[in-house]
Amino acid sequence: MIKTWVVFVALRCVFKGRSNSPVLAVLGIAVGVLALIVIIAVMNGFQLGFIESILEISSYHLRLESFDHDKVDELQQIMLSIPGIKSAVPFKEFQAIARGWRSSQQAVLVRGLNEDALVLDRSMENELDFEAGYFDISSNEHILLGTELARRLGVGLGDEVSLFSITGILSAEDEGSFKEFIVTGIFRTGYYEYDISWAFINMEGVSFLDNESDLKLGIKLVNRFQDRNTIEAANRKLSGYEGTLTSWRDYNRSFFGALRTEKLFMFILVGLIFIVVGLNIFQAQRRSVLQRREEIGLLRAVGGGQRAVQFVFIFDGAIIGLTGACIGLFFGLIIASNIQQFFTIVESLINSFIGVINIIANVFGIGLVNEFAVFSPAVFYIKEIPSRIIPLEIAVIFMFGFMSSLAAAWFASRKVIKIQPAEVLRYE
Fold first, then answer.
1. Could you give the 3-state DSSP secondary structure of residue 306?
2. Rg, C-alpha atoms of the chain
3. Is there a contact between 21 and 284 (Cβ–Cβ < 8 Å)?
4. Are 53 and 312 in contact (CB under 8 A)?
5. Whole-angstrom distance, CA of residue 102 vs CA of residue 155
6. Which of 156, 154, 160, 143 lies closest to 105 in space, CA to CA?
7. pLDDT-derived band of residue 274, with 50, 70 and 90 as boundaries?
8. 154: number of Cβ within 10 Å
9. Burial level of 8, CB count in 10 A (0-12/13-18/19+)?
10. Strand, helix or coil at 35?
11. Alpha-carbon distance 230 to 290, whole Å?
12. For 139, which DSSP code?
């Protein structure tokens, strides 16, 4: 039970009686929390954008392969009957060379889908942003291209594109290895690898180019982290059928591992801010203990126990940590939620300063300075800066900021136990 006088003395130490103000310590914690929230939110925006593009467009959450093609409809219904599965889409894919009307060529991965693929798989629809046309593969002669692929081939909506199956070219260059298509849609995913090297055609159109491509079933889950449980349930349902189920964890394993390692090290590097601030709080609290030896001795002499007096300094650090963490949390969430506007303001301020420099440079005939952009579209393949706030990570950051101050205060306050009232007040 915390006594009232302990809280009163602790508050007095923080706001009135200290020679060195806690403002810098509070600002240190606040800046650390704010910086970590904003950095992690932007990192989550980029990483989750890549991960969702991979899972929603390319690899799916689960894949059913090596099954009897004649039973695809039956297997599709079985998969959809399993709790936790929201879609099951049959597809084929193969490697090809695409050629535009300017004779430009590009290696592409061609995926064959049914005409109703987006009706069955709504989450894929959300990842495809059509800049021209729409998802139209109703004919065997229709093709959908990524924005960068269309630019590389020099084609637009309604233009013709030739596809050469690499399998056909390497084997015998038979007539089935070549076919012309009409562009009916140009999409953008935000993931450069897909926008430069992916194309979609009708499932039946695949047979004209690559008879060897295997039919697969792409499965989406309500919660992709329940993949192992869903595989166990699906294997029981698929007893007696051919086919193997593979999880998204087995695709792009190295890429996902790299993203996880990147985030971990970013946490560690930015977390060093809290260590530095914690050391400053520790030194300030130790100095405060030495400066207040007489007051501590007096409190002990009038009946204050060792733990109660020690708690005065711990409570002091808790107030600093809680105040700084709350301020950092408040402004961090505001900036992370409006990251595009924040960077726009920063760029405007910097470019205003650059404009003044250019005016002065123009007077003296010196070369002009280019405008500044944090994430220039000419360098980065993004339209806007993404940001994703994950509540659990925000809670961890908040507690890390608060606990760093609390731990520093606790270590510093241990010297209070060693102070003896009789020795301190002997000559008072």
1. helix
2. 32
3. no
4. no
5. 8
6. 154
7. confident
8. 12
9. exposed
10. helix
11. 62
12. S
Rounded percentage of the chain residues whose pLDDT exceeds 90: 16
Least Cα distance to 395 among 314, 332, 318 occurs for 332
Tokens 């059928």 -> residue? 241
- C-alpha 214/C-alpha 92 separation (Å) is 6
Which amino acid is it at 322?
L
pLDDT tens digit string along 305-351?
A: 666 667 777 777 788 888 889 999 999 999 999 888 888 887 788 77
DSSP class per residue in 193-243? HHHHHEEEEEHHHHTTT-TTPPPEEEEEESSGGGHHHHHHHHHHHTTTS--
Say how far apart CA 35 and CA 20 lie, in whole Å.
25
The pTM assigned to this predicted structure is 0.73
DSSP structural state of residue 249: G
Exposure class string for 366-402: b at 16+ Cβ within 10 A, else e: eeeeeeeeeeeeeeeeeeebbbbeeeebbeebbebbb
Query: Which tokens sit at 371?
Result: 């405008």
Structure tokens at 210: 């690559």
pLDDT digits (tens, 9 = 90+) for 153-178: 989 998 999 888 876 544 444 544 77
- Give the pLDDT band (50/70/90) at residue 426: low
Three-state secondary structure string covering 49-71:
HHHHHHHHHHHCCEEEECCCHHH
Helix 4-15 × helix 306-337 angle, to 10°? 60
Structure tokens at 213: 């491509």
Which has more confidence, 227 or 285?
227
Given this model, what pLDDT does residue 217 score? 92
Q: Is residue 325 within 8 Å of residue 402, measured between CB atoms? A: yes
With 0-12 / 13-18 / 19 or more C-beta atoms within 10 angstroms meaning exposed / middle / buried, residue 73 is exposed
Tell me how far apart the alpha carbons of residues 57 and 91 are, in angstroms, rounded to a whole number: 12
Q: Tell me the pLDDT tens digit for each residue of 40-97.
A: 898 888 888 888 888 888 888 999 988 888 888 899 999 999 999 999 999 988 888 8
